[in-house]
Amino acid sequence: MHSRNLLLRSLGSNIEHLKPYLSPSSFKSGQVLKHAGDSVESVYFPTDGLTSTRAVLQSGHEIECALIGRTNALGTVAVLELMHIPQRFVCLTDGHAWKIAASHLMSVIRDVPAIDRLFKLFFFMEMGYAVHVGICNAMHSAEQRLARWLTTAAELLEGAEVRLPQEELASGLGLQRGVVNHVLQRLKSDGLVDMARGRILIRDAEGLSRRACECRVTLRRALCLNDLQPGAEVPGPPWGAFFKSR
Questions:
Q1: What's the CATH number for 6-138+217-244?
Q2: Helix residue spans in 81-112 (DSSP H)
Q3: Per mean pLDDT, which of 85-89, 171-175, 218-222 is the most reliable?
């Protein structure tokens, strides 16, 4: 089975253990797949589109912990048999995914150690992503963070256009909408992006990448955008190297 989802491709021949339980699924922009505290009934492997895991405060404010696209999966907390999620899962764009019941995935994981190891590796890389994003949010400017997010999202989407309202972008980055608009206007005047209602078009990907903070490199690796090839056993550094040495 060849899939556009990198995690599934990385299973190699072990994908045969999951194939009987995988079914196609789709989601819509703005759809909330799970609220914080909900049970994990299914795990999703996106083949296109973007979803976001958000930490939500009692005040209602939220911030993105992980960006989920065609390189990873949504709901991997199930591999630790933690059947309730602490975050909110929201779809940022329309998209498609392969879906598997968490109970079926756990059954296969218990029987096939290689699948267990790979899923836990991806889960811990996602946790590493969340930790690093927290540092990024505390240390870097709104422009650096916005440039980092846009270039990463465009890579996951395999295109230059990101269809996302500014309000949703601001929410995920923990910024005021006015701040996001101000930064986008500056990037537009510099010829890096263009804007229309509900979408951002990247005109100069290399120039925008240069405006991003240093976290872009580490977070690209956490998302396996440049280190994990189809069929590879483990992702590259920083977290892949840690697990490979053990």
A1: 2.60.120.10
A2: 102-111
A3: 171-175
